[in-house]
Design brief:
By secondary structure, this protein is mostly helical. Helix content is about 80%, strand content about 5%. The structure holds zinc ion (ZN).
Length: about 240
């Protein structure tokens, strides 16, 4: 029976390693996908910003042309003003010049606003392009890691699978069945007994049961969590060892 418990303990160690490798195998493709998703988002944002930049640039050129036209008009009017003798005509043209300057001022404000926005978009673009390069590098590294870990995990899983089958050969079918059932429900089928308590659920087992566990003559489950209880050889009191 002592052997059975030792084999079951080994089985649990192997299963924990198998679980860990399988978690790696599942985790890394998810991490790769996550980075790839970020790259797609960034690429879309970059292209949106570039489109916006081109749009503003077009608007800016148009405004600059408007400004030039307006300024030409003002200059022409100002020249004409010098030659006008009629007061009424002079006042009318003078008002026109004043209005023209107001319009030109508004266009200048718009030009300035476009330039400010372009500068801000350029800065954002610069940052996003840097992020993109970093993510691209990250994706490259993560893919390399995935490949390396997958290879190692597959090799380890193959070896562990073979060892598991070999160990399981030595365990009574009923115990294997119980082990599998508890493992399926609780994730861990075996619990070490430590100072009279189950190490998984922390409940103290009755002293009589504890004595039976220490004797290692039968498979005993924790009355609280149903895990199979075992004791490490170094935790078996000396008198129990003499007993055997
Ligand atoms: Zn327990």
């Amino acid at each position: 029976m002592k052997d059975q418990l030792q084999y079951l303990t080994r089985l649990q160690e192997i299963d924990e390693q198998i679980d860990s490798h399988e978690r790696d195998l599942a985790r890394l493709p998810q991490e790769v996908q996550e980075i790839a998703r970020n790259l797609v988002t960034l690429r879309r944002e970059i292209s949106e910003h570039k489109e916006r930049l081109a749009e503003i640039e077009k608007d800016l050129r148009a405004k600059e042309r408007d400004l030039e036209t307006e300024q030409d008009k003002i200059k022409r009017s100002e020249r004409r003003l010098l030659g006008i003798k009629n007061q009424k005509e002079y006042n009318a043209l003078s008002r026109q010049v004043k209005l023209g300057k107001k319009v030109a001022g508004e266009i200048e404000d718009a030009v300035l606003a476009f330039m400010t926005e372009m500068e801000s978009i350029r800065k954002t673009l610069e940052k996003k392009e840097k992020d993109y390069a970093a993510y691209e590098q990250g994706l490259h590294e993560k893919k390399a890691e995935e490949e390396k870990v997958t290879k190692a995990a597959q090799a380890a899983l193959e070896a562990l699978g073979a060892e598991r089958a070999a160990v399981a050969e030595f365990v009574d079918r009923d115990y294997i069945k119980k082990y599998q059932t508890v493992r399926k429900v609780l994730g861990k089928a075996l619990a070490e007994i430590n100072n009279g308590s189950c190490s998984e659920c922390n409940m103290a087992v009755p002293p009589q049961l504890n004595i039976r566990i220490l004797k290692q003559e039968e498979i005993i489950s924790c009355p609280n969590c149903q895990r199979i209880l075992y004791v490490k050889p170094e935790n078996i009191p000396a008198f129990n060892k003499i007993d055997q």
